[in-house]
Structures are given as C-alpha cells and as structure tokens.
Amino acid sequence: MNSGPALVSILRQGDTLVASVHTALDDSEMVRFQNDLVRQIGEYRARGVIIDVAALDVIDSFASRTLQTIADIARLRGAVTVIVGIQPEVAFAMVRLGMGMGEVATALDLEEGMAHLAGLRGSGARRE
C-alpha cells in the first residue's frame, strides 16, 4: 500500500530515462531506487540516464557511492549517466568532505544534462 507521494519518479524520454529524486532517501530507499532504475534501463533499452538531485539538500557518502554505482551499471548496460541539479551548498559540502562523483558526468540542470547526452550522440562518442 502506498503511504504517500512518490520519493522518486522515473520517466522515459525517447531512449533516455529521467529519474527525479523528490526527497532525501534512506539507504534502503536508495538501494530500491538503484534496482528500479537498473531494471528500467534494460526494459526500455535506454541509452541515456539523467538523475536529477535538485531537491536534495544533502548527499551523504552512501548516496554518492550509490549514484556512482548506478552510473557504472548503466555504462555496462550501454547507457551514459549524467547527474544534474547538485545544489551549490551540497557541492561545497561534498568537496570539503572529499566526496565526488568520480567519472560520472554532471550538469547544472536537466536542460544541460539533455544537451550533454545529445552532444555525445551527435559526435558518435560512446563511453567505455
């Protein structure tokens, strides 16, 4: 039974999945999000994944590692991931704590994330 609004929405836009995180997720919710997104990458044969974290006012080390893991799994399944919407205060805290997104592409917002993916497609480049 659903006890409230969705914590995450995953929408399909052509061959791209756009996942918007609406509120902070605890560790078990983060793992559920990872599993749902990875399943949908295969189900929809996605070539791009955008994860919008604009609603988050904190990204802890577990969330950061999970986002990196999602990007690694997506890459192994043939999709490029872009994380968008990291708030300035969150970025500042992540840098001070030595956390980052590793090799995962980031963009300011959804529009720039879509442009990044379009640029990769236009150049014929594929991440390995």
From TrEMBL:
It comes from the Bacteria. Residues 6-117 form the STAS domain. InterPro entries: Bact_StressResp_Reg, STAS_dom, STAS_dom_sf. It holds the Pfam family STAS. PANTHER family: RSBT ANTAGONIST PROTEIN RSBS (PTHR33745:SF1), RSBT ANTAGONIST PROTEIN RSBS-RELATED (PTHR33745). This is Anti-anti-sigma factor. It comes from Knoellia aerolata DSM 18566.
